[in-house]
Amino acid sequence: MPEIFFTTNPAEWTALEGLYISERKSPGFIAGVSANVVGIAGKCVRGPTTPQEITSTARFVEVYGERDVNGDGTAALVGEVWRALLNKPFGKVIAQRAYAAAAVAASIGLETAAGGAGTIIGTLAASSPGTWGNSIKAKVETASDADATHWNLRVKWLGSTYLYENLNTSTGVDNTATVIGDDAGNLITFTKSNSGRPVNNAASTDGADTDGYITVGVTQSGFTVVAGTDGSIAASDYNTAIDALAAYSGVSVALVAEDGATAATYNGHLVTIAALAIDRLFLTWSGANGQAVATEASAKAAQITTESDRIVWCYNAAKILDPVTGLKIASPPHHWLASILSQNDVDVHPGADECKKQLAGALELYNQTLTRADLITLLDAGISALEKVDGGFAFHSAVCTDGSEITTRRSRDFLQLSAARRLRTYVKSKATRTRRLQMVGELKAFSQQLQDDERIIEAFEVRDDVTSTIQAGMGLRRVLWRVRFIGHMRFLVLETDMGTGVVIDQGFAA
Known about the structure:
The protein is of the alpha/beta class. It has two domains: about 40-100 and about 235-405, Rossmann fold, CATH 3.40.50.11780; about 105-225, no CATH class. Helix content is about 20%, strand content about 20%. The strands form six sheets. An eight-stranded mixed sheet has the order 4-5-3-14-15-16-20-21, with helices on both faces.
């Protein structure tokens, strides 16, 4: 309808007679951010070298593998992240594989003729570095579409078979960097180096088995083969992995799943990156199972040289059942705290009774007889200790390395990040009274809803009268948001007066 004009510019309203519609933007609202996303770095059997979002156990196995390179418990445990996820609940996890800088991906050149006498058409390689690639089996077959210039590739790994059909590497086809499959769980890549078609693999020829499968990474005479290697992982490799999680948007809790000798060096690095963090906690521990309380306190003091409300040091590893071997294996304490933080609201104390269910997968603790004196020593040292209690296990204290409560840091992050996500839309807007009232109104509504739900906030106030005239003239607008958190009954005293001589004043009986 040409006689109707839509505009929010008042100067247009009197430029010409007519009907003008000025559509005002509806008031917005503040939505709470997610504070339950855990980032876990550590060694994996296989997988990409960049962070990946994992939302199910099946997806983790598809991308990173499980316990060991054989998948059956006959090799040493490699999957540190796999172990961290065992027997405990998690929501969305951001996984970051830690691997040695010297690790190499297994590969073999596919040639136009048998016996290694042909021209290399391209290199078939494991999609990521490590010895796992040495167990990939592959076979070139006749193409499904019967085109003589095309070919099929059949791949097997740990009992699963994958078929890639009608691949075309003929002359004129620009696929010099073909990746077969674009998913993070992809097993292989194929990089073309010459035009043509690789020869079909034949049974018991050129190292192939009786089904015609060659093994990637296993030396074959006349062929270009590179064996996959894991290398020796170092503390610097774990530092690289946690750095990736420190920078990954949306992570609220981050940890390295590793235990062992590199923990001390890694913890020193953690102090540096935690000082730069604005929105997440880092969980760590000494790396030693069953360490004496005094030794643990000394290790924490030596390694966390700058205490922080963004670093949580945990103590007292648990034992869990390895589902592959049926044996008990160590499960570091910070794995359990990560599970608790992933499953509960930011103001739920990790030692609360409702958190016991996240610890149900633990069979026992390395130290099941912590005394009152032990627990006081650990608390004074800024250490969150896991202990055996009636009906299961629980974190006795839940503190950051500076002694502050974990719930305080998490609640602050939740409120500030939730508000910031909405208020950033006001930056560079005109500082009109309407807009200022809208900002204040949104903060009040958000706070009131949390207070009504008895979440985080016990009392609050929001003020817009704290900006001076000079600051306003500079384009600076200040809003003061004061919040008193709902506290926790960390110390509960039941006073009793019982006996035959006790006088009860019925006038004050409840």
